[in-house]
Design brief:
The protein is mainly alpha-helical. Helices cover 73% and strands 0% of the residues.
Length: 157
C-alpha cells in the first residue's frame, strides 16, 4: 500500500493518471454499484471469518472471495466508466484495489489464482459467493479491509 501511495500520489504522472480515472466517479450515487461490490466482498470476508474454521480452507476462500469481488468490480466499473473516461478506468480501479492485497494473494492463492481455479478447487464456497454477488447482500457498515486483515494476519501463525 505504501508503494502504491508513493506511485499514485507523490509523482506528477501518478497524480495525473489518478485524477484522469477518478473523473469517472463524479458522485456517490453514480458510483453506488462499485460500493455495492465492496459490500459484497466485505460480506464474503466476514462469512469466512465466522464460518470457515478449517485453516486449509480459510486462505483459498479469501482468495476466491477476492476473485468474485474483482469480477464484480470490473463489470460495474466498466459499465460506469467506459463512456466517460474509457475502458482503462475499470482496470485502473481494479489495480488500485489489487495492489493493496497483492502480497497476500501472492502468498496464499497458489491453487486459486483466478475465478476458474476457484470454481474448480473451491466450488461450493465460490458458488455461494457468486450467488450472493448476483442477488446482493445487506449494506455493510464497514469496508472489507479490517476483516480481510484479520484473516490475513493468520498467515503468521
Amino acid at each position: 500500500m505504501k508503494r502504491t501511495h508513493k506511485t499514485r500520489c507523490k509523482t506528477k504522472n501518478g497524480r495525473k493518471e489518478f485524477l484522469k480515472h477518478m473523473g469517472c466517479i463524479v458522485d456517490e450515487k453514480m458510483s453506488e454499484p462499485i460500493h455495492t461490490c465492496v459490500d459484497k466482498w466485505t460480506w464474503m470476508i466476514n462469512f469466512i471469518n465466522k464460518n470457515v474454521s478449517d485453516p486449509e480452507k480459510q486462505f483459498p476462500s479469501a482468495c476466491c472471495s477476492f476473485h468474485v469481488f474483482e469480477s464484480c468490480l470490473l463489470k460495474e466499473a466498466t459499465q460506469l466508466c467506459a463512456s466517460r473516461t474509457g475502458p482503462a478506468t475499470a482496470i485502473y480501479i481494479r489495480d488500485v484495489v489489487k495492489d493493496g492485497v497483492a502480497e497476500f494473494m501472492d502468498l496464499a492463492c497458489n491453487k486459486v489464482r483466478n475465478l476458474a481455479d476457484c470454481r474448480k478447487n473451491e466450488a461450493s464456497l465460490t458458488k455461494l459467493f457468486e450467488e450472493k454477488a448476483r442477488v446482493g447482500v445487506p449494506k455493510q457498515m464497514t469496508s472489507a479491509l479490517l476483516p480481510f486483515l484479520q484473516l490475513a494476519t493468520k498467515l503468521d501463525h
